[in-house]
Amino acid sequence: MIVVSSATSHTGSAVADALLAAGQKVRVLGRSRGRLRAFADRGAETAEVRTDDEVSIREAFAGADAAFVMIAPGLVPTSTDFPGFQQRVITAHRKGLAGLEGLTRIVSLSGWAANHPGARGPVWGLRPLEEALDTLTGVETIHLRPGWFMENALPMIEEVRETGTARGLIPADLPLPAIATADIGAVAADLLSGRRKAPRRVLELHGPRDVTLDEIVAAIGKAVGRPDARYERIDATAMRDGLLAAGFSEHMADGTTAMTSDVADRRIAMVQPRDAETTTPTTFEDFLARVIA
């Protein structure tokens, strides 16, 4: 049995989809069993779980041979102490999974921000999650550190469609290791099922090539009939103000802006080279064609 946490998230659903397509026995976890119905229709077991409660975690993962683990939710816009919530989730998983009978393999969703010791905002908990899972004995643990999710560009599609301009804090010409969550899910599924062996405890994941936001916005513009589309860089104050206007708490607006500044200033960066082990196949153009279709 392979247990997949946060199966309604982009990445969790990609992992579950890949496992089910391969004929694996799967249990999917989420905060609401109703939202997991599509997986149940395909033969998966379903279970509700509180990610910050060790008893709930232990019950949900009982009987697992392998487990996909991540911090969920990865963002709570109204939170006033998100690191505190993340620490509760991490502690619950460390205690709930410790000594779990039959569990021999864990694949965690970390991220390229874990390469930066001073990671801030919503990505603060990635390295602590890795460190907590590494304390478990008798379990092979692999941490996936994917780069910049292509799904981050989804809000830009409507922005470009409506205004012809997308705005952000990251420099327009900064190469981003963009990756589709479907590809992350495929790698995780192969590792969980044993079809693939990781060459190291931490595995970074790139897409086939780096892309810039200038290239991303140009591709979006072409796809939605706005060939004049352009990317406009804003400063940190403007980003923070926009998040506050969207309903973020001051705490989460500050943290999200700090996280994005760490990417913009290259404090968050990939350290493993793009090679056969770290490269995934989906181009941004392929991703965009899929989501627009």
TrEMBL record:
InterPro entries: Ergot_Alk_Oxidoreductase, NAD(P)-bd_dom_sf, NmrA-like. Residues 2-72 form the NmrA-like domain. This is Uncharacterized conserved protein YbjT, contains NAD(P)-binding and DUF2867 domains.
